[in-house]
Design goal:
It is a lipid-anchor; GPI-anchor. InterPro entries: QVR-like (IPR031424), Sleep_regulator (IPR050975). Keywords: Glycoprotein, GPI-anchor, Lipoprotein, Membrane, Signal, Transmembrane, Transmembrane helix. By secondary structure, this protein is α+β, with helices and mostly antiparallel strands. It has one domain: CD59 (Ribbon), CATH 2.10.60.10. The chain has 2 helices and 7 strands.
């Protein structure tokens, strides 16, 4: 039984080993957009063709990392078209605050502002409106759940 657990553990770890290539993520902040421009996708769809993803371990990256991150913050009053402010930040990240990649975490600050942080581990994955759960995360989670369920 212990040998089976060791083999499964090694297989799960092997899924996370990469070939040494760094992840590439989009990097922008709507807070740095020129007036009356929305280059980072705060109010309209993010246009990947206007941006070049950066290697997260290069000097171009504002923060080194092993996965991508997208942060959205939004004011509480009215709708977006009624003047509610919205901010989007896309960048590389090295630590997910919740400790999980491939998911989005959200909440509300005490002042009523909404926030959402999404983490993913595929090249250019922080350029989409919805981040999908990577197979590199989904498969080990499913295998672990099945193993624990049938062996406990």
């Amino acid at each position: 039984m212990r040998e089976l657990i060791s083999v499964l553990t090694c297989l799960l770890l092997a899924l996370f080993i990469t070939t040494g290539e760094a992840i590439r993520c989009f990097q922008c902040s709507s807070g740095q957009d020129p007036k009356d421009e929305d280059n980072c996708g705060a109010y309209k769809k993010f246009d990947k063709s206007q941006h070049i993803a950066v290697d997260c371990n290069s000097e171009e990256s504002h923060m080194p990392g092993s996965f991508c991150m997208k942060v959205t913050q939004q004011g509480p009053i009215g709708f977006v078209w009624d003047g509610r402010w919205r901010q989007v930040i896309r960048r590389c990240a090295s630590v997910a605050e919740m400790g999980v990649t491939g998911v989005c975490n959200w909440g509300v600050y005490e002042n009523g502002d909404y926030w959402e942080e999404c983490y993913c581990i595929e090249d250019e994955c922080n350029g989409s409106g919805r981040l999908s759960l990577s197979l590199r995360i989904l498969v080990p989670l499913m295998l672990t759940t099945i193993f624990v369920h049938y062996n406990m």
